[in-house]
Amino acid sequence: MITIDALMVCLDLSDIDEKLVAFTRSICERLDVRKVYFVHNIKLYELGDDFRELIGEVDLAKEVEDNITDIVAEQFGNTTAYEILVSEEPNTEVLLADLVKRYKIKLTLLGKKMSDKSTGAQGTKLLRILPCSVLVFPETASFNIKKVLVPIDFSAASVHALQLSQNLSGQLGLQLEIMHVYRIPSQFFPLISEEKAVRKAEELVKGKFAELQKRHQEIAHVPYTLVRAANKSIAERIVLHLKKGHQDLLVLGLKGNNPLPSLSLGSVPTEMYNTDINVPLWMVYSETVIKR
């Protein structure tokens, strides 16, 4: 059973906040979440002198907290124990990383606007610095999750993501599909037959799947799909498969090869985050990686 002792929800006082809080309620209603922290950091240095003069003696932190309280009361209610944290720190990324360690946050929920509304730079920074798993909720995503896709490359990180996805699917009665995107070095064509190369590559990957299923009996009957990258990136193939399969959640394992706080996202998760997709993206670090 998946238990989340502490969940952090990052709010930015934009239109996506209501959706994010409502999605948080959906998570808490379906999973065992012990406590939720709704967090916002006021960047005072971004406020111009004219605005500072305008607000005068107004307690801005109190006003922001009241605003978040109203949203939480309307969209979240008393679903789970929660706390609202409003800060005024110069560096949001460092603040949030500190909160993760202080409150032993296991999962952070981030909202994501489409690329025509935001560069996503803040989110990318957070993904690289937060020492916990991250669930990204695009503004166009749905709360109704029935099908889960987990791409794997047979690394320990992707196997961990697969195990979490299997537990999640079993707990909530979801459909789970595994996919693997493979490449064939094109520089050897036409020296060797492309057809034979594809056949050989798929035989090798199927062998890896067979070995994986022997080691992890719980995923033995989960359907998997092999996809050749061909002239596209792995992330592009994942996006195309999402559209074809109509999955509602994407789960990716993060390797974390570098020491904290600069965890390594990897090229595929980074590209997936920077792509406009309509499903939540759960990027998972294993406990082993987090404790390094």
Automatic annotation (TrEMBL):
What SUPFAM superfamilies does the record point to? Adenine nucleotide alpha hydrolases-like
- What positions does the domain UspA occupy? 145-269
Output the InterPro entries linked to this UniProt entry: UspA (IPR006016)
Q: State the Pfam families in the record.
A: Usp (PF00582)
This one is known as Universal stress protein
